[in-house]
Amino acid sequence: MSLQGLFGGTSFFSGFTRLCKGLSAVLVAGHIVVQIFPSSVSYLALIPAWTIPFAWNLITAGYVEQLVIGMVISTVGILFIGKVLEPIWGSKEFFKFIIVVNFLTSVCVFTTAIALYYVTREEYYLYTPLSGFHGVLSGLLVGVKQIFPDQELSPLKIKAKWIPSFLVLLSIAISFFTAGSSAYLPNLIFGTYTSWIYLRYLQRNPETNYKGDPSDEFAFSTFFPDTLRPVIDPIASVLDRVLWGKFRVSNEAENYTSGSAPLPGSGPIEASRRRERGARALEERLAADGLSESGSTQELLHKDAAENV
């Protein structure tokens, strides 16, 4: 079973969820608005020098694509990645993920821009309008990495678990040869790693009521080649002890309140079950598409037979 099955045949342009269609409409509308009214960029995009008092920019910037190529990539990305993840997470959690990752990415980009200004004294970092949905898209790819880590995506011939790392590495490499990399690179990097933090420590599983995914298969070091993991793991373990220890206590407290005892190792087991549910959901989706195509074929055959009679 592979993710390509969802994107092949007549199902390629079908199966898009209502929420993803709505988000695509928002991205298209935002692009049209800034093209017709260029001055609206000052109120919708993230301009660090103006974020105070225009604090709403931390939210609106993520849904405004200033370039047509960005709008096309974002709309296509949310439609196709959304039809894989939303049925597994549920519409509410999928929407919450987008809201949280978009906001956290904007906060990190704002903080970085201010820090760069104080280090370099370049006003470019304060007054460049920053916007785009690519931070959320990179975060959604981390969701694909979590649920379908070993699925191979063609024509890249690369497993899904390496896609976020490949995207970040490629973006960094391109930034050395292109101007204006600050307009997209921070969003991609922060979108990738804030989404990992959310999925690793904050996302609540509705079935177990636990937060996060503590499995080794989703550790921070899995973003890096195996040869670097002995170096990355000790560093990442500090953050893991701080954050995961806090949320494990929270999980146990909630579990105690509900009157049930936590099972040892339930975190990794639940992470494995989440991946199994993802695989089952994918199989059911493909089976439904196959039945739909089979039904359409039979209908055409009956119609042809009736016309021949």
Overview of this structure, please?
The protein is an all-alpha fold. It has a single domain, classed as Rhomboid-like (Rhomboid-like fold, Up-down Bundle). The protein has eleven helices and two strands, in the order αααααααββαααα. It has helices spanning 18-36, 41-44, 57-60, 68-89, 91-120, 124-127, 134-147, 163-175, 185-202, 229-258, 266-308, and strands at 152-153, 158-159. A two-stranded antiparallel sheet has the order 1-2. α4 crosses α5, α4 runs parallel beside α7 (134-147) and α8 (163-175) runs antiparallel to α9. It starts with 17 loop residues before the first helix and ends with a helix. The model is unreliable at 256-266 and 303-309 (pLDDT under 50).
Number of strands: 2
Radius of gyration: 22 Å
CATH uppermost class: Mainly Alpha
Taken as a percent bin, the fraction of beta residues is under 5%
Task: Please outline the major beta sheet.
Answer: 2 strands, antiparallel
CATH third-level topology: Rhomboid-like fold
Count of alpha and pi helical runs: 11
Into which percent range does the helicity of residues fall?
Answer: 55-70%
Whole-number average pLDDT? 80
Side by side, the strands of the main sheet go 1-2
The SSE string, one letter per element, is HHHHHHHEEHHHH
- Uncertain stretches: 256-266, 303-309
Measured between the Cα atoms of the first and last residue, the distance is 42 Å
Question: How many domain regions?
Answer: 1
Helix-and-strand structural type: mainly alpha
CATH superfamily: Rhomboid-like
Quaternary state of the chains: single chain
